[in-house]
Amino acid sequence: MGGELGFDEFYAASFRRLVGQLYAMTGNLPEAEDAVQEAYARAWQRWDKVREYGAPEAWIRTVAYRIAISAGRKAKNRLLAQHHHGAGRDQLPGLNPDHLVLMDALRRISADQRRAIVLHYLVGLTVEEIADETAAPSGTVKTWLSRGRKAMAPYVSEFAETSTSAGSSRSGQRTEAGEE
Q1: Residue 104: which of 79, 77, 69 has the closest Cα?
Q2: Euclidean distance between CA atoms 173 and 25, whole angstroms
């Protein structure tokens, strides 16, 4: 996507999407915005090189994720303080209850599981693409996804359905009629 676009067009076409993805991964909107903005600043400095990558958006997402993780200790402490004091939820306008439940469930799983869940279900990446982006073996990504779904099942009904159906057969695959 980035190779044919100039930086400004690329930024305009992908910024909101990447902020949403990082928000889902980190659970903190301001932190996600800051990390994505910093990643774009780094990309802009070397745009001639970044634009030639097969997936410049993936490069920016990876850099932004690393920036967010390095600032993660502070963000985690802030999230814990907000959670204990009940602040934060009322300050985000326009969020529906389903979104809040999803974000709460994502906060309950490990960072690796959260990243894999977001990349797979929200971004739409395959297991192999996630493995490439995270530099982890595909078996590890599958484990993160499986454990993440299982941990989120009590909070997110879609994962409860996946968790119970995956446990009822070895393949965990359904036919078009929803039968295994």
Answers
A1: 79
A2: 26
- Name the CA radius of gyration of the chain, rounded: 18
Q: CA dihedral defined by 132, 166, 115, 32, rounded to 10 degrees? A: 140
Q: Per residue in 31-88, pLDDT tens?
A: 899 999 999 999 999 999 999 988 999 999 999 999 988 865 554 566 566 666 554 4
CB proximity list for 42: less than 8 A, separation 6 or greater: 63
Structural domains present in the chain? 1-93 (1.10.1740), 95-180 (1.10.10.10)
Q: In Å, what is the CA distance from 41 to each residue of 9, 45, 177?
A: 14, 6, 48
Instruction: Identify the helix (H) or strand (E) that includes residue 105.
Output: helix 97-107
Is 65:76 a contact under the CB 8 Å cutoff?
A: no
Three-state SS string over 52-102 comes to CCCCHHHHHHHHHHHHHHHCHHHHHHHHHHHHHHCCCHHHCCCCCHHHHHH
DSSP 3-state of 11? helix
Phi, psi of 173 (to 5 degrees): -100, 150
pLDDT in tens, 4-40: 678 999 999 999 999 999 999 988 899 899 999 999 9
